Structures are given as structure tokens and as C-alpha cells.
Amino acid sequence: MTAATRLPLLLGEVFIDYTITPPGTENKLRLGGVAHAARGFWALGQAFRAAVIIPSYLEKVTRDYFAKLGCVELLVFGIVTGAPNLTLIFDATEVADQEYDTLLREEKAVQLIDISMALKNTDDVLIFPGAFRLADACAMLPPTARLHVDVAYEVETPNALAEINRSIETILVSTSSPLFAKTKDQTVNGVAAAFADCKPKYVILKQNRGGTELLDCSKADHHIEALPAQLGATINSVGVGDVFAAAFLTALPNGVAMAGWRATYAAAAYSQTTYPDIFKKYVERDQRLSLDEMTSLWGTFLPWSARPDVQIYFAAPDFAEANRGVIDEVLKALLYHNFTPRRPVVENGELPPNSGAAALRTTYEKDYGLLKKCAVVFAVPSEGDPGTLVEIGLAIGAGIPVVTYDPSSKNNNTMVIAGSSFYSSDLDACLNATFQLLGQRQK
Amino acid sequence: MGSSGSGRISDYPGSSGTGSGASTGGGGGGSDRCAQAIAVALEDIEHCDFHKAGGTVPAPGQQLRIALKKRIVAETDAGITVGNLPTAYNYLAACLKDGWTYAGTVTASNGSGAIATVSADFAPSSHP
Question: From the list A27, A276, A297, which residue is nearest B25 (CB)?
Fold first, then answer.
């Protein structure tokens, strides 16, 4: 066996990712699909092979690009026709759903090419399902190959994996995955149960800003490794989960816990820069940290399934007739991350104009009572809403942390800024702060 | 059509920061995070040696440095821990191991309230 045959094989489609950014900033174009995981292998110094499905027009650039990333052999195992494999992305920071839009997806067809002879010496395979029949692709792999499958996208049900009819070493899924959304028990054990027929050794549930849970089923006493997120300013979160998968596979020979932690750090680095050399520099530096050091440093850990029970008081002019743009943006983001914010205006009612003193007093007391039950106040004092500013003050007085999102910076007042645990005009940063505050409480 | 960074794949290894032709437009994070100055509110102050020793916090102007203990900490030049940095700064652990050092000063502090507070600014003082 040559050294090359022991290299991991990366299998899936290559796309063009085109991120639409706010006016005044340059849109971002780069290779996507399995190119994200390829960057992960490269940053970790892991040479690899790739078997890709691409539209023909992308073959030359994919070969050039992957060669630069240390791909020692690139095999084309499928051709896309009818669509350019071009995905538009409207929210690079994933404060809410990233709103992927893959152009001409309903016209797309994939013709697989039999490359089984070229794959006969394959050991570990990292698979990203796509618009191809997974069972047909896996049939080209030798029966001894160890499969690691990221099922976040393009897997409708666990049955799609079961029909491969072979065990799968690692199953990775993300809370942003449509498949996860359909999973009844939204815990890592629930995911493992859904994929039990695949007999996975490792089940990984990536939970965005709240960290990751890694279920190790390789021993009799199944163990869950909590892997806190390493939060920083998100530059571009597209492909972060793919980098996690590549880093996990690369570090797996050093033990599953080490692999999980290395993957967490690599994923965080990928989210914080789109400059490949800087990403690699971050990953190489992080390799200096031992498992003990990473464990001690900890991070932010707030499992998906725990979030609905977390009490977040939503302080905002949450009125039906208010200018709801920013308010709805925040609610969408909080719901996307599985929080169920307490909305006093919704729960205790919206008083009509000129309400009497008794009604005002009753509603005030209900709202204040609700606020005191909450762990965090997420405040959006849009248009300088006096009620919201009072709620911020009440929370500060009660020792309840306040995250203030002030997109227009019109409330950049000493008391608001210094009294808040976190104040920013950036929703990404406010979400991170919310996770950090609540994650500390969970710990 | 103009230039929008969409004319070709530009984020090849080795292409960072080499002008518009190699733009990583729409992205960012082009400066090394180890090289960035930071302003932080320290955590867990009451549990750290400085406060435990005298029940006080360092006054504004006091010089501090950043060190890796079990957490990323701010400490005096004598090595007395004042507080932990928030975990958002965990990346500094790798920077410190890489040879970066950070010095700074206390910008605000209060040891008399219900919770002790210390804010400090730091900047790299040496790098590899």
C-alpha cells in the first residue's frame, strides 16, 4: 500500500458560494461544497484525496484550487448538468437562517461515473451528501472503508443512510440542518437513536454558538463529550461545520476527545476569517494547546435542547403597530437559535392608548414580575422607546444581565452602555454575548 | 460590470492581502487576531489572588499583563492574578504559546460594590 492510499478521501459536490453582503461591502465568491472541508484538511497539514461531483466548467478551477490545498489526487465521480452549482448566501454570519438559494436546483441532474477501481484502497472517507444517490456512491467504495458522513444537508431521512446497508463510523449533523429539524428527540442521543441502524461509533451534534456534543458509542458506556464553542466575531460561518468534520477526522487518531476539541478550535478559526493563510495560521497556533489546556479554558456551552427553558426577557417596543423591522429581526434570530423569549407585550397584553391608572399599574407589575423571573434581558430600545429603557434600568437594579442591541446607536448613553452587560449595534455580537452569559449560568 | 470580487476565485493560499486582484471581498478577518489590542472587563475577580489577599482591586493606571494559567488571566507584574478574561479571548492562549506577550493598564475599577469590577486595556508588547 502506498502512503497516498492511507490519505482520507473527501467525497461530495463542489459549488460556487456567492455571499451577498450589505451595500458598500464587496460580495464574497469562493469555492464551496467540499472545498470548505478541503481548506480544513489543508490548514491542519493533512494531505487528502478527493472524489468530486462538479459541473464541467468548474473542473479546471477545482483541480487547480484543490492541488494548492494539498489534494494529491482529484477524481471526478459525477457531472452536474442543468445547473451551475452556484449558491447564493444572504446571511454570512448566521444570526438567523442563512437563506441559501441554489440556482436552478430543480433543473439539476447528476450523472455518476464509476471510479470504484480508483477507490479500492480507500480507508477513511468523509462524505458530504448531495444531489446524488448516496447508496450508489458508497457502492464504489471498498467494504473496508470507514465512512464519516455529514448529514446536515441533502439527507431527507435517516433511512437514506440505512439503505447504504453498511455501518457508518461517524455521523455529523447540525442544528441548522433540515434533517435535524425533523428529528423528534432533538438531543445527541435522539440523533443517535434516529441513526441506530447505521451503528455509528461517533455521533456529533453541532449546535452553532452553543457548542457541540460528541456521543462516543465505541465503548459500552456511551459517553457525551461537551465541546464548548469558541466564540468570536463571526466573519463568515459558511462551511464552518464542514471544517469541523475535516478536523475531527484528521485528529481522530489522537483520540476522540482530542479530535472533538481540535475540530471545535478549527471551526472557530474558519468562522473568523476568510483569508486562507490567516485561517491556517490560527489552526497551526491552536495545535500548540494540549487537551488539558483546551478543557480548562472551556468556552460557551449551551445545548440546543436546554435553550427553550432559558428565560430571556425581550425588552422592546414589541407592539403590533410599531416599526417592527429590527424587532422582528431579533425575534427571528432568537427563535432560530431555539430560544423562546418571554415577550411581555404578548404575554401581558398591549394596552390601548389612554388606559386608566389601574390598568397601567397592573400591566407594569405583571411585566416587572416577568422580568424578575428571567436570566437575561435582551433589550432592543428602538426609537428610544421609554418603556424599554426603564426595563433596562429595572434589570440592572435587579442584578439581571442585560444585552442591549442598538442598531442605530441612538441610545449610546452612559447609563445604557455601562449598565448593560453588553451593548452593541451588531446583532452577531449581541447573540454571542447572550450565549456567553447564559452559557456561564448553565455551567 | 465593474469589479466586485466575483470575477474569479481569488482566495488561493498565499493570496491574502495582496490587493484587489486577490480580494477576499465579502469576507474579512484579514488582520491577525493576536496582533489586536483589546479592552476587557475581567471576570471572577473575587476568586482571584489579588482580591483575596487584600479585599481590593487594582487602581486605574495599574500595569497588568496577560498570562495563561488554567484560564487566560490578567495579572500584575509580580504574577498576582487579578481576574479572568472572558472565554471569547481564549484564542490568546495560542498567541501566548506562540510567543506573543501583552501588557496593559487598568482603566476602571471598583472594589466597593456588590460585585468587584476591573476593566483593562491590553496591546501586544512583543511578538515572535
Answer: A27
Using the beta-carbon criterion (under 8 Å), do A299 and B90 form an inter-chain contact? yes
Higher pLDDT, B16 or A378: A378
Least Cα distance to A334 among A205, A424, A235, A433 occurs for A433
- State the alpha helices, DSSP H only, in A312-403: 325-336, 344-348, 357-373, 386-397
Rounded to an integer, what distance in angstroms lies between the CA atom of residue A43 and that of residue A47?
10
List of long-range contacts for A362-369, beta carbons under 8 Å, 24+ apart: A367/A391, A368/A394
Helix, strand counts (H, E) of chain A: 16, 17
Q: Test A235 with B11 for CB contact under 8 angstroms.
A: no
What is the tens place of the pLDDT at every residue in A153-190?
888 888 888 888 899 999 999 999 999 999 999 999 99
Which residues of chain B have a Cβ shorter than 8 Å from any chain A Cβ?
Answer: 4-6, 9-17, 23-30, 32-34, 68, 70-72, 86-88, 90-91, 93-95, 97-98, 114
Picking from A28, A300, A432, the nearest residue to B26 by CB comes out as A28
Tell me the pLDDT band of A30, cut-offs 50, 70 and 90.
very high
Question: Does residue B21 have a pLDDT over 50?
Answer: no
Would you say residue A124 has pLDDT above 50? yes
Helix %, strand %, coil % of chain A (to 5): 40, 20, 35
Cβ-count burial of B8 within 10 angstroms (0-12 exposed, 13-18 middle, 19+ buried)? exposed
What span, in angstroms and rounded, lies between the C-alpha atoms of A427 and A94? 10
For residue A135, what is its C-alpha cell?
447508496
Residue A280 with chain B: CB contacts under 8 Å:
13
Count other C-beta atoms under 10 Å from residue A235's C-beta.
Answer: 21
Report the DSSP beta bridge partners of residue B110.
Answer: B117
Interface residue of B6, B33, B40, B109 to substitute, partner A, most A CBs within 10 Å: B33
Q: Which residue has the cell 472541508?
A: A37
Q: Provide the 8-state DSSP code for B58.
A: P
Indicate if the pLDDT at residue A7 is higher than 70. Answer: yes
pTM for the model stands at: 0.93
CB atoms within 10 A of CB A415: 12
Q: What is d(CA A142, CA A279) in angstroms, rounded to the nearest whole number?
A: 34
For residue range A326-351, what is the model confidence (pLDDT) as tens digits? Answer: 999 999 999 999 999 999 999 999 99
A266 exposed, middle or buried (CB, 10 Å; 0-12, 13-18, 19+)?
buried
Residue of A402, A396, A422, A439 whose CA lies nearest to A316: A402
State the average pLDDT for chain A. Answer: 93
Residue owning grid cell 471572577: B44
Alpha helices in A174-215 (DSSP H): 178-181, 188-194
As a whole number of angstroms, the distance between CA A7 and CA A206 comes to 25
Listed residue (A311, A316, A284) closest to A388, CA to CA: A316
Give the containing element (helix H, strand E) for B83. Answer: strand B81-84
Of A28, A61, A277, the CB nearest to B13: A277
- Four-CA torsion B16, A206, A335, A416, nearest 10 degrees: -60
